[in-house]
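Tokens for chain A. Residues wanted.
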């Protein structure tokens, strides 16, 4: 039986990975060790019918594992992924740390799962950002009809993308608003409850944030480096699901009906035809699909479309991608 080390098992994405593995009959029969920091050490995680205690990462010998899944952020990836790979353990990493490394494949399973075969270069596979993943999933079928020249994204990202502490901050601020209870901001620079924050991550000298830069670069790496991309990222007071307003300019003609027909062929996308209806963040929460609605012509350019996407950032945008990559790696290469 293969052995998997799941690093960050008690975090938002780690728990979703466990949830998905517990749901999937197709996932190989494996032994999973939940791993974390001192903060989560000893916490019980229910995996395949067993309650397993989280083990401190510093006690782990990765040479005893066939695969490691890292869902613990960039700092943990920087510190511990090299220890895993040097011990001969391949890694699926959910953080941004290795995504732009030219020797590390950046994989969005509905788009370029075949790139998993390149894991041997550094024994690392990166999964994409929780916006880049659903957006490339939708753009890839359209890119095959008419090459994409330019994409403009306005993202509306839930607080779960910033971790459990961010979700707690939204909850406490919301309660405080109605009860006049005191609270202290720890995660966001301004109140997130009943507010929107038009800045995610640090600001670079060119004015773009780290999040906006990551989204653009990752879409280009996965889909096509020649596409021009502009991104405005906004944090919204929603617990789960990211939504995106998408403007796409193509090099040739494409109709909304052609786009809808192409997207319907994807098992990972659900399209709504009724122009008076749409998918919201709540509609997408807990689902594995990327939901597309309000798809129509963009009247400001010759060959353009506008649409709205909604997807669960913890499942489709993170955990499910990692599980599908691990599943493919285990069944085909390990």
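Reply:
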């Amino acid at each position: 039986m293969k052995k998997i080390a799941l690093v960050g098992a008690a975090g938002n994405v780690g728990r979703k990975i466990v949830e998905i593995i517990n749901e999937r009959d197709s996932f190989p029969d494996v032994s999973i060790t939940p791993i974390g920091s001192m903060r989560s050490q000893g916490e019980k995680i229910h995996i395949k019918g067993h309650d397993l205690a989280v083990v401190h990462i510093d006690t782990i010998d990765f040479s005893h594992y066939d695969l490691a899944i890292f869902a613990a952020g960039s700092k943990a990836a920087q510190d511990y992924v090299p220890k895993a790979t040097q011990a001969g353990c391949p890694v699926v990493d959910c953080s941004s740390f290795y995504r732009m490394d030219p020797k590390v494949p950046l994989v969005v399973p509905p788009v370029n799962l075949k790139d998993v075969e390149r894991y041997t270069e550094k024994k690392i596979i990166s999964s994409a950002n929780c916006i880049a993943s659903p957006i490339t999933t939708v753009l890839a079928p359209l890119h095959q009809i008419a090459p994409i020249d330019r994409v403009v994204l306005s993202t509306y990202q839930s607080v779960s993308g910033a971790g459990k502490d961010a979700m707690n901050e939204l909850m406490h601020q919301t309660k405080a608003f109605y009860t006049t209870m005191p609270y202290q901001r720890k995660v966001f620079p301004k109140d997130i409850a009943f507010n929107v924050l038009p800045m995610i991550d640090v600001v670079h000298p060119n004015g773009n944030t780290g999040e906006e830069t990551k989204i653009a670069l990752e879409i280009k790496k996965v889909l096509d480096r020649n596409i021009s991309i502009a991104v405005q990222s906004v944090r919204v007071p929603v617990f789960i699901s990211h939504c995106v307003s998408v403007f796409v300019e193509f090099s040739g003609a494409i109709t909304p009906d052609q786009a809808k027909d192409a997207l319907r062929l994807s098992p990972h996308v659900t399209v709504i035809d009724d122009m008076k209806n749409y998918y919201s963040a709540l509609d997408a929460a807990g689902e594995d699909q990327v939901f597309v609605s309000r798809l129509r012509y963009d009247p400001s350019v010759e060959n353009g479309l506008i649409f709205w996407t909604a997807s669960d950032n913890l499942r489709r945008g993170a955990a499910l991608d990692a599980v599908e990559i691990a599943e493919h790696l285990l069944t085909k290469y390990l």
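The domain at 2-127+318-332 is CATH 3.40.50.720 (Rossmann fold). The chain has two domains: 2-127+318-332, 132-158+196-313.
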